[in-house]
Specification:
six-stranded mixed β-sheet; four-stranded antiparallel β-sheet; ATP-binding; ABC_transporter-like_ATP-bd; ABC transporter domain-containing protein; P-loop_NTPase; alpha/beta; ABC2_TM; Rossmann fold; single chain
């Protein structure tokens, strides 16, 4: 109880969540007033001319149009049949405007936006998506648009400023100067009022703050940006979006917003269940156009005074919360015969909408990604290294457990006699358990971190932000110092504590233990990238490691493994580092002693542990040295140390290659 009290009183593990990481030149508790500087006698006014001008836009204004869009998915009840979720949708969105996509819950607004944004990974799409009147390629859509998902996904160890800088440098073209990219970052921070939290780490921030991250694309897609927010926060978010609309095209899905939020939209595309258009057009001031349109429909109850027009509109078509009846009017057919549809058809036929215009550029990109390879490497690798440095719960836990394990093994084996039959078997078992605990601890620890970061990787890959190879390089390099440091802490305490001797063997023991931990970490990353979830990766990983552990060569020992299972012993990656560790300690003997049958004693016994005669050996074992027993019964030979080092490094390379292939070709984000 006392220890629990101390932990609750003095320990806090929230850092570095939502903390300021900016460097300060003074202490936070320095509140002394600065002395007023002395003024000159000259009292003449000094006029300072400040240049004032608009920031240069780092994007090309783009008009988005979609013509006769259809989308089918397999019917879950009858896979041979197709369900049509979108039926001939037409519409457009122009720069400087915010277009709302609304519908009955589940009628297809998010599906429509995903189709337009090129984010769908399944199903069949028909129709045209155009940018500035030119039919858009998949690359053009990904390069010129930004997509903010309903649940924000970011690398949580970055600050807001770092996240914006990362996006600015990797999403904007390499031809744009660094100063202009930094200007874009500062513009976003000022535009969205992020000055006070710009240097706070994203992890632990409120939902409202998380919603305020933005980039510099020509087109921004927002999936329910006000979801989960109260009315005030939703209004603040949409005010920020409206400030950022200048020159940009913003398309936003939203579900039953407040009237204050709804008034901020410029135009609306309303869908009904089945994926058909109920309304498309300008909303007008305070949604006057929309209100007049619906009030002119026979059977529609006029908008009550003070009532939210968004809620009223959805109730009219039977999509309000708790609405089960709704008006029986065919709103789709009514819209087809309305002036708004005629205006839509006329606008769609204009230059720059569905017809190329000589005044508007075609969105053509010569490269798959905006930034060059060096910029990608710099920002992605640096972010990964920063993430590891700031995720103290992950790394400090490993260091702490290394100390605990080393001390625990030391206390148990502090006076062990390894030159006896029971002592030698216990010693080999101790090394086996030490290697196993350190390796499996690393494997299980890396899964949550890798799976959580994978979500941000999927989002950034969908926008062609960077090459998966640089993400792979960052994850590879970030782990190395922590694996080697945790194993160093363990070895420095463990090796002398349990009675092992020799500086060179200790260094080699540390190196092979580090490589063993690194191998398990990289195998964990491979499973995290290749399998659909953290839980599945953990289960499959435990299953695979259980097989590897069973055939490591300790229990059962190498000589006792049935011939039919020898191949598992041969391919078990964990066998090789264990063999090196055991051979370094128990099989190190340059010259074996000789048995004198007359005196019934060994002669010319060396000082190394491996040269010592094994005491109390069973009759069926006979006279044997520690080295001979280790090599014959466990199959862990000193002469194979160099080869096994190479095999371990080879296994690490194989796991990294498999991890890279999983990153490149496996995508568990289904839309």
């Amino acid at each position: 109880m006392f220890l629990t009290f101390l932990a609750l009183e003095f320990l806090r593990y929230e850092a570095p969540e939502n903390v300021d990481v900016s460097e300060k030149m003074v202490e936070d508790d320095s509140y002394m007033l600065v002395k007023t500087p002395k003024s000159k006698d000259d009292k003449s006014d000094v006029i300072v001319e400040l240049p004032v001008g608009e920031r240069e836009k780092n994007f090309t204004p783009v008009t988005v149009a979609f013509q006769d869009l259809h989308y089918w998915v397999p019917d879950p009840h009858n896979p041979k049949e197709q369900l049509e979720l979108l039926k001939g949708i037409n519409g457009f969105a122009v720069p400087g405007s915010i277009t709302a996509l609304m519908d009955r819950r589940g009628a297809g607004k998010t599906t429509l936006m995903d189709v337009i944004a090129g984010r769908k990974t399944g199903g069949k799409i028909a129709g045209k998506i155009l940018l500035n009147g030119y039919e858009a390629s998949d690359l053009a859509i990904r390069r010129s648009t930004g997509y903010c998902e309903q649940m924000d996904v970011h690398s949580e160890a970055s600050t807001f400023r770092e996240a914006l800088t990362f996006s600015s440098f990797l999403r904007q073209d390499a031809s744009i100067s660094d100063s202009r990219k930094f200007d874009s970052v500062n513009e976003c921070i000022e535009l969205l009022g992020l000055e006070d939290i710009a240097d706070q780490i994203i992890r632990g921030s409120s939902v409202e703050q998380m919603k305020q991250l933005a980039a510099q694309p020509s087109v921004i897609f927002l999936d329910e940006p006000t979801s989960g927010l109260d009315a005030r926060s939703a209004k603040l978010i949409m005010d920020g979006v409206r400030k950022g609309r200048l020159g940009r095209t913003i398309i936003c899905t939203i579900h039953q917003p407040s009237s204050e939020v709804f008034y901020l939209f410029d135009s609306l595309l309303l869908l009904k269940r089945g994926g058909e258009t109920v309304f498309f057009g300008d909303l007008g001031k305070n949604c006057r156009n929309l209100i007049d349109y619906f009030e002119n429909i026979p059977g529609v109850v006029p908008l009550p005074k003070g009532y939210n027009p968004a809620t009223w509109m959805l109730e009219c078509i039977g999509a309000g919360v708790g609405n089960t009846a709704g008006n029986q009017t065919d709103f789709v057919e009514y819209f087809k015969n309305s002036p708004y549809n005629e205006q839509l058809v006329a606008n769609m036929a204009k230059e720059g909408i569905t017809i190329p215009s000589p005044d508007l550029p075609e969105m053509v990109f010569g490269k798959k990604r905006a930034a060059d390879s060096m910029t990608q490497m710099k920002f992605v690798v640096r972010r990964y290294i920063q993430m590891y440095w700031r995720t103290s719960a992950y790394n400090l836990t490993r260091m702490f457990l290394a100390v605990i394990l080393a001390v625990l093994f030391g206390l148990i084996f502090v006076s062990a006699d390894y030159a006896s039959y029971s002592g030698l078997n216990s010693g080999v078992g101790m090394v086996f358990i030490a290697a196993l605990f350190n390796s499996m601890m690393a494997f299980q620890s890396v899964l949550p971190l890798s799976c959580s970061e994978r979500a941000s990787f999927y989002r950034e890959r969908a926008s062609q932000t960077y090459n998966a190879f640089w993400y792979f390089v960052g994850s590879t390099l970030a782990e190395i110092p922590y694996c080697f440091m945790s194993s160093l802490i363990f070895t420095v305490i463990f090796y002398p504590f349990v009675g092992f001797q020799g500086f060179v063997p200790a260094v080699l023991f540390w190196l092979i233990l580090s490589l063993s931990i690194l191998m398990q970490v990289y195998m964990g990353m491979m499973f995290a990238y290749a399998l659909p979830s953290e839980e599945v990766a953990a289960i499959i990983g435990v299953l695979v490691n259980s097989v590897f552990i069973l055939f490591m060569g300790f229990s059962p020992p190498a000589y006792a493994i049935p011939s039919g299972y020898k191949w598992l012993y041969t391919i078990s990656p964990m066998k090789f580092p264990l063999s090196v560790m055991v051979a370094l300690v128990f099989a190190d003997c340059d010259e074996l002693p000789t048995w004198n049958a007359t005196t019934q004693m060994y002669e010319n016994v060396g000082s190394n542990l491996g040269c010592q005669p094994m005491a109390n050996s069973p009759a069926d074992v006979g006279h044997i040295t520690v080295k001979e027993y280790t090599e014959e019964y466990f199959g862990m030979e000193h002469d194979t140390i160099a080869r096994n080092f190479g095999v371990v490094i080879g296994c690490i390379v194989v796991f990294r290659i498999l991890g890279l292939l999983a990153l490149r070709f496996v995508n568990h984000q289904k839309r």
